[in-house]
Amino acid sequence: MVRTRRIWVTAAAVLALAGGVSGTTAHARQAPAATESGGKLPPGWRIDDGRSAPELVWRSGRQVPMGDARVEFRSDGRLLGVPKPERDGHTFRLGLESARTGDLKDLQVWSGGRRLDTRSPAATTPAPAARPPAPLPANPVDPGKPGRYRTTTGSYQLRSVRLPGFSVPVEMSAVVVAPTGISGPRPLALFLHGRHATCYTPHGDDGEASGAWPCPTGSIAVPSDRGYLRDQRLLASQGYVTVSVSANGINGQDWGAEDGGAQARSSLVRLHLAQWADWAQHPGRAPRIVREAPRADLSRVLLIGHSRGGEGVNRAALDSLYPPPADQDGYHGTVRWHISGTVLIGPTVFGQNPVPDVPSLTILPGCDGDVSDLQGEVYVDGTRAVSAGKALHSAVFVIGANHNFFNTEWTPGQAQAPAEDDFYDDGDHPDPVCGKHAATRLTADQQHRAGSTYIAAAARLFVAGDDKVRPLLDGSGRRAPSADPARVLSHAVGANRGAGFLPDGGVTVTGGRLCAAVDPAPARACLGRGAEGVSPHFAQWETGREAGRHAVALRWTSTGARTRVAVTQPVSLHGSEALALRLFVPPNSRGTKLDVSVTDTHGRKATLGRVGVDGLPGSDRTASYWAREVRVPLTAARRAGVDLRSVKSLDLTSRSASGQVWLMDAWGWRPGTPAVRAAALPRVDIGRLTVDEGDSGVRTYRVPVRVSGQGSGRVRVYVVDPATGEARDRLVTVRPGGHGIDVPIEVKGNTRYGTDVPYDVLVKAVHGAVVGSYRGGLTVRNDDPAPSVTVTPLADRVAEGEALKWRISLSEAADTDITALFVPVPVSGPELSTKDVDPQWLAGVSGAEPDPERPLSKVDGLYLWLDVPAGRTSLDVTVPTVKDQVRESAETVSLQQTDDAGRPLPGGLVLTGTVLDAS
After folding, report:
1. Using one digit for the tens of pLDDT, what is the confidence trace for 27-44?
2. Which stretches within 430-572 are classed as H helix?
């Protein structure tokens, strides 16, 4: 068995408008080796033989719990790919044919914005304890109070279903909690849990939970769907029929899905909704618990999703309005329901394409140790300017909440299966914000109570239409007493916000900086170097640099410093009561003050008022650079005669001696929640085509793109260079039946062995469009056999002080590096030891020292990685020995090729040599 490293090619894909340029040819080039021949990968890393290509393997010293954020391998700051997790919870494997960089250098493992393969250095002095902000005024209406109805609980289990891309059927089971003593149809609230362990062994230890599916003999399914019973009971007491569906079958198979399983979860949700629609029409066919419940009103549906379940219900809302391609979908019936809103709890957003015309509430846990970058903020920020903007998109930041405790079955002491606090804390150096005993940290019960309250708030606003709870969600600065003592802050976009100042929408900035949300260059990035923690507003996508995501960064060292944001087209604030700004300052900072002014196109200017902004409690492990919403009334502008129909600039003037502020946006605001009607929009789905490279000739293929729906809109398309990982982007106008997205790729056939080459294409909605399958491309599959490999001794019997030497030969050259990994194995008779070889060579292949003297087969971590470069047919391998003054018998070394697990491979290649005494 031989290892092969992927074909490295220059990106051939180019974006073309209809009638534009075509693709260019992909030229092979040699990839530099990950290490020098005989070198060593960082601790914890190795390369193993895979079935079709070598695998990059990382093993964690401690178990990595199965969670919702994707584990990612990165090299030199670029994404290599998403590895496959092993069942042991420690080992992750990535086929190198899907890698995206030439050098395997500066290897890192990331998940949800935090690094897994290293720990932050402990602080030399304890960080000061964080202070929670003062409680907000109470809202007159508290949605967290139980309603007047008693409840009943039951479950149903239907026949499992097959979903596209998954080999094992997925369960159709759910837990129902419904009100009793009530007549007439009632709204339906559907819960979908996130990605967690699927199976566990009863009475076992923490190591006995796994992501297997179906569950192995002796283990049972983790009842994640029962983790929201408190939330369900609260809603049911208020008159809602609730159902929490199980998705273990998706969790056990979604590691390989390009979208992380979002489409599969959407299919599962809609399959359940279809069942409820059938049961509403034919109650006699329903399971017993459904017959005992009031009839569900499918015209009023609230979807609640946790983690990947959040992304799943967002996709279900999208698919209910704009149908997905049939071959990607597991539901093929008609839509007989209306999604009134969604609640997304600590959600993932791999696609970064939220549904613009369905109201949403995103709950951001301030101590999330799983989706720790709080990327769910994109469900707010990512909706701006995409559609009409009438749907309210709210984010609430729950200080001191972690990821898992919103689900009791993921909470230690409450769960049936093994569970843990996902915010890992060093007991010797506790986090000042999220440590178990920090003043800002919530208990599990406090956190769950806050979650229940805000889920009920969303139900009351989105489904029942009670505008009295809106101030809890839209940045008006009110609290729900039922959530006490939790500190919950909110901001929002949409609803009755009108035109405004959007950094992404064509502005010029003086006295400040228009910065990029995602950019590797510190001079352009919004946070840059030196930031303590990260910002949810700047959560990274799959590209190292993103176009079209900006904020305005302000920094000053004296009072009176002014920053002006001018728009290219005047905005109208007519009809608004106030100007609402979303601003954030560094965590833990206090006392930042700014005067806010506007100027119209006639030059008339008015200072609207002064705002103060304090930072959230934060540490270097939290995503606390999060915007607070502040408002200034427009009364002064009207008194000054400012033409609010034609405002051209916004000024922010410092009234504190020094400080930093980031402006996300500013909008005309007035109270109320308008009715939302989903716009008729085109939908874009990117597919993936896999083709053989062929033996000769040049063939042009096009990445499959489907545009459905109605109208036209704009999307941003990224084409990723498979050799460098760099992405090129272009704005494209799309319409059904059009050819706006054209990605041609030329493939040159040959008869030399290589590995598969993926050309990845990504797409994101910009205006007047939605995106379903955001990721696809073309995979060029190698169809040539690997060359045979032989070993020829050149100097396999030498005197000490000379070098043992062998030649590795290929039967023919390949278009990719051919590698093999060897380990020393015990021999019969005297064996070459650590003091018989050159110490520099020993350090290079193992990191070991010669002392104490021991046989080479006893050296931990000694691997000889041999690499025949692409285009070459041979490689000479040497083991340098040293001469000593000790009289000794002949000593032998045997280096044997390894298998996937790093063990000697029976029947594999062997390098054998003998060293004779020179004295």
Report:
1. 222 223 333 333 456 777
2. 444-458
Q: What SS3 state is found at 616?
A: coil
pLDDT in tens, 610-665: 999 999 999 999 999 999 999 999 999 999 999 999 999 999 999 999 999 999 99
Q: What's the CA gap between 7 and 30, in Å, rounded?
A: 8
- At how many degrees (to 10) do helices 308-321 and 262-281 cross? 60
Reported confidence tier of residue 86, pLDDT bands at 50, 70, 90: confident
Q: For residues 173 and 692, what is the distance between their CA atoms, to the nearest angstrom?
A: 41
Q: Give the whole-angstrom CA distance, residue 264 versus residue 170.
A: 10
For the chain, report the end-to-end CA distance as a whole number of angstroms. Answer: 40
**Residues sharing a CB contact under 8 Å with residue 419, sequence separation 6 or more, in sequence order:** 404, 409, 410, 411, 412
Residue 498 CA, chain-centre distance (Å), reads: 31
Which residue spans within 382-432 are E strands per DSSP?
Answer: 393-398
- Distance, in Å, from the CA atom of 14 to the CA atom of 699, rounded to the nearest integer, reads 15
Query: Would you call 674 helix, strand, or coil by DSSP?
Result: coil
* Interatomic CA distance for residues 795 and 797, integer angstroms: 6
The helix or strand, by DSSP H or E, that contains position 265, with its residue range, turns out to be helix 262-281
726-514-357-731 Cα dihedral, nearest 10 degrees: -40
Q: Which residue has the tokens 């008779």?
A: 829
Torsion angles phi and psi, residue 184, rounded to 5: 90, 160
The two three-digit tokens of residue 619, written as one number: 């540490």
Cα(843)–Cα(407) distance, rounded to whole angstroms?
Answer: 49
- Average of per-residue pLDDT across 112-128: 62
| Distance separating alpha carbons of residues 360 and 102, to the nearest angstrom | 42
Kindly report the pTM of this predicted structure: 0.88
Rounded CA gap, 715 and 737, in Å? 16
- Distance CA(186)–CA(716), nearest Å, equals 41
Give, in order, the Cα–Cα distances in Å from 797 to each of 171, 555, 766, 873. 63, 71, 69, 24
915's CB contacts (< 8 A; 6+ apart) are: 798, 799, 800, 804, 832, 836, 881, 890, 891, 892, 893
**Token pair for residue 333?**
């019936």
SS (H, E, C) 427-453: CCCCCCCCCCCCCCCCCHHHHHHHHHH
Both tokens assigned to 426: 């060093």
The set of residues, in sequence order, having a beta carbon less than 8 Å from that of 611 and lying 6+ positions away, is: 581, 583, 593, 594, 596, 630, 632
Least confidently predicted of 237-241, 901-905, 915-919: 901-905
pLDDT confidence of residue 55: 76
| Exposure of 49 in the CB half-sphere (CA atoms within 13 A) | 20
What average pLDDT does the segment 192-217 reach?
87
Is residue 611 within 8 A of residue 593, CB to CB? The reply is yes
Strand order in the sheet with 803-810: 789-795, 803-810, 874-880
Higher pLDDT, 712 or 41: 712
